[in-house]
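Two proteins were folded this term; both appear here.
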Amino acid sequence: MPKPILLLTRKLPDAIEARAARDYDARLNSSDDPWSRDGAEIARRAAECGAAGILCAAGDPMGAATIEALPPSVKIIATFSVGTDHLSIPAAAARGITVANTPGVLSFATAECAFTLMLMAARRAGEGERLVRARAWTGWAPTQLMGVTLEGKKLGIAGYGRIGQELAAMARGMRMEIHYHNRNRVAPELEQGAIFHADAKDFLGAIDVLSMHIPGGEATRKWLNAERLSWMKPGSIVVNTGRGGTVDDAALVTALSSGHIRAAGLDVYDGEPAIHEGYFALENIALLPHLGSATEETRNAMGHRALDNLDAVLLRGTVAPDALP
């Protein structure tokens, strides 16, 4: 019996590609670059090979137009991500195509990235690295690149899901006080003493460092806008490893330029890989290229989770464990 045809839209870790090649007639992308930015090439290749499944990634344009152009052979789209902003789930549902993601396996790595950016912003590590690399450092000085400590600061976590809770656990090691803003208050055993704020203004006014972990979508687009930034204490720090579209870039550039926001650290961007030009003129911001889950352990776990979902539908004829409604 022929193996189901699986289209992998991006280059994945070796172990994941080897497993895919073992169990499927796998059609691979040998490059780290996407085939296209509009999704047309994905649909064309799926039709050309008669794909039964597609393993895509965050950033792949799997919107309604792409999904509507897929051949009827496609039974499942497994995304190598937790987020599904790049996918039209309603369009897939209308075609009877299962969509599955990879929840739970990247929480620690993403929280680790947020914590890295918190430290970089607070201790001006990006500025220091650039100074040394430019061969402009002339030696130690008592007032050179003085930042602030995180010890004793109030960390505000916007979106207190798995990633936010992992970050809270790390921050407690720095003796930070944890505050969070969420659609609903979580159970006491998950709070671990964190302080819940139902009101965004109360939340933002209480904290020294903001870490963004709220979901994407139109309801949260530019959630951190000029008004909300004005609610924050002068000299606050902003970090975003969640969704790029939840931050109003122009407003953040203005707040950083004025000094109202002391520093920021970003790993995600609205419309990435495009980045707001205003950020490049600023010294008080650390910019990472979407490294949130970029550890060997996590990326392999994500790949195996995606293949588990594909196996359920294409090899066993069962429901994908991470199928989205």
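Next, the second protein.
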Amino acid sequence: MYKLVCIAGMPGAGKSVVSDYFVTRGFQFLRFGQVVLDIIKENNLPPTENNERKIREDLRKSRGMSAIAILNYPKFKTLLKKGNVVGDGLYSWSEYKFLKEKFDKQLIVISVYAPPSLRYERLSKRVIPKSDKDLRHRPFTKEEAKARDYAEIENLEKGGPIAMADYTLVNTKSLAYLMREVRQIYAKILRLRNHEMQKQKLYS
């Protein structure tokens, strides 16, 4: 049974770094918020925090609080037929419950934490590389980042998946330290999947 590893955390915590590690280990990649940026591109809007927030909240008003997960569900389902998947940016409690209901033991959630001051510093120093067509690494001012934090916590139930994560990474030290922690979690997930496969063979 292939695994869907979803990465949760506030902006600037280090979700993309963790997701990218799983990609290097052969996981297929899907970014939750890409559906929002795709709508922004389709409507020729600038990728500002105000525009993103409006689209995120409009989607949830029209489709419910699990909207982003529902929109990504067919993609996750297709990818899981071929192999393990990492989902970058699990947002709301409703999305967590939706995915848990659909994928059950296939779903593993990793929370990445860093305090606001450190996250805001990271976000303000971001530079968008030319290769970043999906705008994963766009910068935010401190004011934009704080506004996004409040909106995600108050309007998008973002604390739920972070609190209920299977694993939590505290990203306040060096990149090398974070990578050591990520490798340990990856090894645990691999052992879990191998154990499940052995059980399947035993009872098949």
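The chain has a mean pLDDT of 91. The CA atoms of residues 1 and 197 lie 7 Å apart. These notes refer to the second protein only.
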